[in-house]
Amino acid sequence: MNGTTFSGNLPTTELTRWRLKTEDGRQTWHYLRTDEEVAAWPQSVADKYHLGLPTDLPALATPGTPLDAARNGLSFFSKLQLSEGQWACEYGGPMFLLPANMIAYFVTNSEIPEEWRIEIQRYLAARANPEDGGWGLHIEGESTVFGTALNYAVLRIVGMSPDHPVCVKARKTLHALGGALQSPLWGKVMLSLMGCYGWEGVNPIPPELWLLPNWVPFHPWRWWVHNRQVFLAMSYLYSLKKARPVDDITIALRKELYVESYDSIDFSLHRNTIAPKDIYHPHTKVLDALNAILAVWGKWVCPSKLQEIARDHVYKLIKLEDENSDYCCLGPVNNPLNFVARYFTEGESHAVNMHRETIKDFLWMKNEGMLANGTDGVQCWDTSFLIQSVIECGFGEDPQYRDVLIKALQFLDAQQIREEPKEKDFCYRQQRKGAWPFSKRAQGYTVCDTTAEGLKSVLLLQSVPGMPKLISDERLLDSVEVLLTMQNANGGFASYELIRAGEWLESLNAAEVFGRIMVEYPYPECSTATIMGLQQFIKTHPNHPRRTKIENVVRRTVQYIKKAQEQDGSWYGSWGICFTYATMFATEALKSTGETYENSATMRKAVEFLLSKQRDDGGWGESYKSCETGVYTEHRETQVVNTAWAVIALMNAGYKERGPIEKGVKLIMQRQQPNGEWLQEGIEGVFNKSCMISYPNYKFTFTIKALGIYARIFGNEVS
Ligand code: LAN
């Protein structure tokens, strides 16, 4: 193939032929095969940067002040803005997403382009754990059966020989872990779809649950939306029990993935066989008992007519999820599962083709090869943060940033969700008209903090003199109304929806590898963002009739946040690593209602906590282990992103001692490169306690924000 060369013992494509395209927020990577195409579509700085190619951006004048450093950072980061006004980045980390997507391509007989095959092999080879050649739940995790069995299968699907050293090493580790029989539930399902595991060895995922009346306290409509949508598609597939027809490759995989001979395995005995290394959330006795009952129910009791009715009902919900998200779906697991569900039911169809396309929205190309992102991009989220950072620096009116900001505003204008989902109540959706999604409008899901950060950013920008007013008050109010529907009884805000059931449902958590996946929880991060958005609205619309309501909401939220403080003065972060992340948010919420180091014990405790974790070099560095264990754990190295969060938190708290804050700011400045960029350090984000995910743009947005706030509070100088 054009441009293919060899690097080490694996082929590689020519990185200079890759381009990131953006169309109405949809981001996809393209490989240009001919020289004419290459000439007609030059590689942008952003393309080069994301591919790890030299950007040749010049060294800038050495910054003497924090704001000089912020300007240098912006000079670099603004070159990464895409033509539609947003920022993109690798959003990898989880190691089960490429398998979910590639197995779907495989099962649906979709052609996997040659350039993907090459680059996926490279990525998985680069990301195999150096000691044992396996893969874990996420890129920094130890090898597990889930990670190793599935990624091994991907390598074989995309054409790697079983004799290749990468496969040999991974297989050895997989076998040492007990082989694919030890896979957790999601692994068992994916392997079953491929024809490499027996459906009878999968714990029950009954679609009949969807027929229960809505008042039933464990009805799936009450589950956290990610778990619910994955369960939806899985329950349909489980009920069909279909698999890809067996052929040479699956016969080979049946041999390679197992320690035992495949034909000798009685899968029905292995529903609960899971490698200890894989388990984060062990089964409860209740779950085991329920599984035993449901297994009998599914096999002997449930009338086939009822199964059919349940399947039809679930299929209707699957179709609505597809249509309400333009076939992107909520995320990178339910999209491929819906894809397979539709393929098994309809064969080749419009829907199947649409899924074949939208899988591309999740794929990302980088110097190490091709991976799957955690979402179809970070468009709205990171764009909002960039806007806020520029404003914090006081650069809103600076002509130098005008174009960048106008384009960012245009992006948020285009990506605001403008209508409710089709059959909203039937498919149990939260109100969304006026919301900003995490990624792009088509995906169509509100998250309270993505909406709030979008709202706040638009309000800030549209208040800058001379900035166009693209988003009307009516549309801003729509987003306020969405947020107002999302406060929970305890005052906190969750992620996508209201909390619909209690934590006790976690006793039915069957995913084994994740914690806190069954229901929504209130989060200090999401709660803070929400009230900051709402308060910004009141600042710009002081006489609005919603004022009293908003003030009440804010008061109750702050009470919740205070209650959520840990003994040591920190807050546990569920979406960023970890205590430094949430403490930055929580202190911002408290500050917004007038609490300071001087007048609030809560703030003083927060400051004590932060200061106790500052390192000798002036920075902070938190390991992802904090998220897993709930105990602050030091990273090997000081992290520029944790440092920015901690410094912002101290300034939120109104801590007046310049010393420690200045030391943090100086570390941020020292780590900046001559061209204005910061280099990638440890992974920044997390979900479900156990799975890490990268937020590479945080090293720009939060550092710049920290520099800006510092200059405003302490003056634009460091000693
Ligand atoms: C995200 C990414 C963004 C994140 C924030 C907005 C930062 C957060 O404050 C609220 C929750 C949210 C929207 C979030 C939820 C879970 C996601 C979608 C992810 C961490 C990105 C990937 C993850 C998703 C669940 C991955 C697929 C895995 C499953 C268990 C289905």
From TrEMBL:
The keyword Isomerase applies. InterPro entries: SQ_cyclase_C (IPR032696), SQ_cyclase_N (IPR032697), Squalene_cyclase (IPR018333), Terpene_synthase_CS (IPR002365), Terpenoid_cyclase/PrenylTrfase (IPR008930). Residues 77-319 form the Squalene cyclase N-terminal domain. GO terms for cellular component: lipid droplet. The keyword Signal does not apply. PANTHER family: LANOSTEROL SYNTHASE (PTHR11764:SF20), TERPENE CYCLASE/MUTASE FAMILY MEMBER (PTHR11764). Belongs to the terpene cyclase/mutase family. This is Terpene cyclase/mutase family member.
